[in-house]
């Protein structure tokens, strides 16, 4: 009897020990995933030059092509969702990938890794280098040409997967023409909506094949909470601003509203911020314009221009406040939409609409490759030659993106010397 009791106790202890080991392994795996997401996103934060469309090219190469964290269709669907929502599209895509990989904390560390390098650089620009003109530096021109190669390589990979037939190629072509001939923020949203309707009609009943399901570790309750918070802040902040007359509330309200109303990425947010800050006396026009060249010189999202503006107004505290305020609305919207998007994208009736949207996204990328990326980067045969060489490094020799960035910087400096 005593032996039976001992054996039972040992079994219970052994089971507890096994459960404890499993929990420890799960915790270690979670920490490893978070660290992996942070390191990869930080690398992208240091090397992703060229604006939101170029960032999508960098993300595609790193997350889809090299690491295979998600497949082509899931990536294109996430890009399409981010294009629909207000906010910084590339940062929203990075947040979504982080969430898929390692949960909500994965999304947060992905955002921090991708954003902190440019935030720190712009704060330093504001504190130390306000009078330094970096806009005409040769290495800046080289980085613009890097963006040409990165986006062209991304388009090549996405087009082969997302426009495999004549109907979808035609949709992509119409998206290119529509976007280039009517270059407004509204045109981008409208063409995606029209492509969804056309795709639903052309491909209704069809399903994507050979794609793995995407796990979104966010509950619908949490998603609804995020959406509620987004609208609550949007309507309550202006009231608090008038009632309290606090500078901190005024700054947070200005940047939050700008981040809530912007479709199309960081370039569009600049005039909104100028209208919010300059006429109200929060910042002089000269100080506002002084940071624009510096913003073009750093990698990462253009929304981090808020860090420069916040620093100019109220030092480091202002930088933190402005950065959080401008990114927060886009992130609340994405986190609120992700669980519902994941269900919709796997509904057979919605597949046709997503076929059309993904084809339109390819067209939008091609249009963006021409303008503003190509038109602002390639001005001479030397520029074009460097772009071809950098594209070859990616597409032919399969070299990592950081080597392309370094080669682009050196090539830009050399072109500046030879010109």
UniProtKB/TrEMBL annotation:
The chain crosses the membrane at residues 108-132, 138-159, 171-202, 222-243, 316-341, 353-374, 386-418. It comes from the Bacteria. It is a multi-pass membrane protein. It is found in: Cell membrane. InterPro entries: Chr_Tranpt_l_chain, Chromate_transpt. Its main location: membrane. Residues 1-25 are annotated as: Disordered. Keywords: Cell membrane, Membrane, Transmembrane, Transmembrane helix. PANTHER family: CHROMATE ION TRANSPORTER (EUROFUNG). Belongs to the chromate ion transporter (CHR) (TC 2.A.51) family. This is Chromate transporter. It comes from Caldalkalibacillus horti.
């Amino acid at each position: 009897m005593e032996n039976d009791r001992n054996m039972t106790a040992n079994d219970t202890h052994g089971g507890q020990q096994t459960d404890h080991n499993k929990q420890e392994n799960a915790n270690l795996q979670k920490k490893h995933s978070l660290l992996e997401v942070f390191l990869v996103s930080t690398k992208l934060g240091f090397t992703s030059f060229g604006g939101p469309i170029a960032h999508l090219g960098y993300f595609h190469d790193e997350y889809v092509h090299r690491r295979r964290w998600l497949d082509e269709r899931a990536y294109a669907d996430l890009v399409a969702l981010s294009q629909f929502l207000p906010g910084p599209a590339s940062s929203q895509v990075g947040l979504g990938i982080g969430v898929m990989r390692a949960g909500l904390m994965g999304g947060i560390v992905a955002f921090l890794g991708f954003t902190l390098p440019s935030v720190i650089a712009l704060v330093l620009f504001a504190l130390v280098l306000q009078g330094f003109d970096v806009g005409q530096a040769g290495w800046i021109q080289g980085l613009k040409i890097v963006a040409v190669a990165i986006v062209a390589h991304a388009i090549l990979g996405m087009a082969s997967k997302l426009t495999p037939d004549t109907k979808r190629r035609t949709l992509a072509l119409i998206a290119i023409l529509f976007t280039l001939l009517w270059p407004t923020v509204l045109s981008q949203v409208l063409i995606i909506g029209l492509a969804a309707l056309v795709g639903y009609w052309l491909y209704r009943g069809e399903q994507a094949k050979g794609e793995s399901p995407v796990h979104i570790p966010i509950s619908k309750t949490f998603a609804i909470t995020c959406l509620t918070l987004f609208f609550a802040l949007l309507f309550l902040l202006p009231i608090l601003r008038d009632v309290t007359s606090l500078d901190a509330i005024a700054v947070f309200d200005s940047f939050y509203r700008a981040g809530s109303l912007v479709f199309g990425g960081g370039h569009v947010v600049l005039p909104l911020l100028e209208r919010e800050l300059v006429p109200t006396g929060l910042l002089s026009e000269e100080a506002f314009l002084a940071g624009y060249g510096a913003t073009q010189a750093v990698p990462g999202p253009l929304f981090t221009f808020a860090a420069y503006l916040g620093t100019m107004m109220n030092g480091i505290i202002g930088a933190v406040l402005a950065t959080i305020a401008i990114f927060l609305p886009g992130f609340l919207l994405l986190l609120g939409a992700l669980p519902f998007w994941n269900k919709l994208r796997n509904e057979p009736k919605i597949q046709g609409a997503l076929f059309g949207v993904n084809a339109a996204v390819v067209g939008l990328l091609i249009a963006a490759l021409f303008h503003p990326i190509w038109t602002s980067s390639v001005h001479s045969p030397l520029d074009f030659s460097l772009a071809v060489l950098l594209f070859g490094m990616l597409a032919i020799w399969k070299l990592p993106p950081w080597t392309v960035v370094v080669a682009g910087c050196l090539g830009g400096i050399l072109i500046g010397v030879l010109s």
